[in-house]
Amino acid sequence: MRRRSSVVEVLDRFFFVFAGIAALWLGAILFMAGWGLNFEYWVYFVVFWVVVAYLGLPRLHRILSYIYVPDYFIGRTRTSDGILGDPVNIGVRGSEAQLHAAMQAAGWTRADDITARSIWRIIISTVRRRSYLHAPVSPLFLFGRQQDFAYQQEVGGNPKQRHHVRFWHCPKGWLLPGGYRVDWLAAGSYDKSVGLSLFTFQITHKVDENIDIERDYITSSVLDHNAQARVAILKDFSTGYHSRNGGGDTIITDGDLPILELAQVPVDSSVQLTTPPRAGLIFDSTKPVPLLPVNHELTPTAELGQAIWSRRPLQLLAGAMLVAVSVIMELVQFVQDMYDAWQTGSAGQVAGMDWRWVVAIAAITSLVVILIEAALVFFVLRGSALARLALLGAASFVIIQAAVGFFLYRQPISFGNSLVTISLHIGILLALSSDAARRFVYRPVPVRQPQ
User: Is the Cα dihedral 85, 90, 94, 99 positive or negative?
Assistant: First the structure.
C-alpha cells in the first residue's frame, strides 16, 4: 500500500517544482528584454545564459530525473542535477587508510574540496594555464551522497587535462548485485578538455569516451606501486554499452569491474584520515523523500545528525544571504518611503485619519515584517524546518504577485528594482528548496545515550 504524502512533503515538492518554473521564466524575461539593444543585449544574453545554465535547466533536470531515473543502484553515479553521470568502474576491498596509502604510493594527489577559494583558484589556473595539482572535482552522487574523496593526476601541468577517480564508502552490509562484498566503489575517467555541457550548457570538463582505458590505468598504477595489492575482475558486471555521462559526453565500456584487493597494503603512520563521519543510511538525493525513522537499522542516528549539522550546506547559506540582502533592500526602501511621505504629507485627512497616524502605522507594519524576515533567517541557519517553509512561502508570494501583474495586467518588468527583487526571490526559492537545504533542516536529532 502506497504511503500518503504529508502536507510538508506536498509543500516541499511544490516549492521544488515552482522554483524551476520561476527560474525559466526569469531566463525568458532576460532574453526578451535584450531584443532591440546593442551592446546591452550581450549583457542580457550573458545573464540569460547564467540563469538558464546554472539555475533553470539544472532544476528542470532534477524534476525530470525524479520521474524517470531509478532510485536504486544501477552501476551509475548521478550529477547534482540528478542526471546519470560516470559509470562505477572500480571496486576496492580494504580500509580507508590502506586506500589512501595505495593511491599516494602510486603518485595520485588528493583533490581539494569544493570551496569558494578552490573554485576561484581553478578558474585562475585554467585561464592562465597554470598547474593546480589539488584542483577539486565536481560532485557526483552514489548511495545518495557526494563522493567521500577524490584523487587525480594532472597531465603536463595543464589543469584542463587530468586523470581522476572518485571514491564512495559502501553502506554497512551492502552487497553488489550478485552478492559480492566491497568496501569502496569508484568512478574513474579522464578529462581531455574544457567545454560546455550538452545538457545544461555549463562550463565543465569534457571526458574521454573510452573510460575503460582510464579504469585500467588507475588499477595498473596501484598494482605497479604496491607489491601487496591484487586485483580480481568481475567479468560482465554490467552489459557493455555506449551512453553519455552527466555532461553529455559519449562513454564506452565493456562492463567489466576490477576489484582492487588492498587488505595487505601496509599503512604509513603519516597517512591522515580527513574524511568526515559517514552515515549508513542511503539517502535518495533525487527527490524529496520523508526521513526514515531514527531507529532504522542502517542509521547511526547520533553520527548522522552530527555529520550533517557540523557543516551547513552552501545552498542554505546562499539562501540565507539572499534573504538578508532582500531585508536590507526593504529597509532602505522603507526609509526612503517614510522620508518621502513625511516631506509630501499635509495636515489633511487620509481615510478619516490624520496623515501622521497613517505614516506611523505603515512604518510599524513595515518594521514588523522586516524583523520577522530577519528572525526567520536566524532560525533557518539554526536548522528550523518551519522557518525554511515560511521563507519559501514568502518568496513564492512575491514571485506569483509579479507573475500575475505581468501576465494578466501587462505590467512591465524593467531592469531596475522590480527585476532585481524578482531575481532575489527566485534565488531564495532555488537555494532553500534544494535537497541539501531540505536534508539539513530535516536531519535526525542526535539522541543522548544514558550515562
Answer: negative
Q: What is the pLDDT of residues 258-283, one digit of tens each?
A: 999 999 999 876 665 655 444 433 33
| Long-range contacts at 130-133 (CB < 8 A, ≥ 24 apart) | 130/157, 130/159, 131/157, 131/158, 131/159, 132/159, 133/109
Q: Which three cell numbers stand for residue 388?
A: 525554511
CA distance 431 to 421: 15
Domain residues of the chain, as ranges?
Answer: 7-65+313-441, 73-285
Strand pairing partners for 158? 155
Q: Are 146 and 172 in contact (CB under 8 A)?
A: no
93 beta partners:
261
**pLDDT value for 5:** 67
The C-alpha cell of 12 is what?
A: 516541499
> Measuring CA to CA, how many Å separate 61 from each of 78, 166, 199, 209?
11, 23, 9, 23
Q: What is the pLDDT of residues 120-168, one digit of tens each?
A: 887 787 777 777 888 888 899 999 888 999 999 988 877 778 999 999 9
pTM: 0.76
CB atoms within 10 A of CB 329: 14
Give dist(CA 261, CA 241) in Å, integer: 26
Q: Are 444 and 294 in contact (CB under 8 A)?
A: yes
The C-alpha cell at 155 is 597531465
Kindly report the number of other CB atoms within 10 A of residue 82's CB atom.
25
Taking alpha carbons only, the member of 167, 196, 199 closest to residue 95 is: 167
DSSP string for residues in 192-236: EEEEE-TTT--EEEEEPSBHHHHHHHHHHHHHHH-TT-EEEEETT
The C-alpha cell that represents 37 in the structure block:
539593444
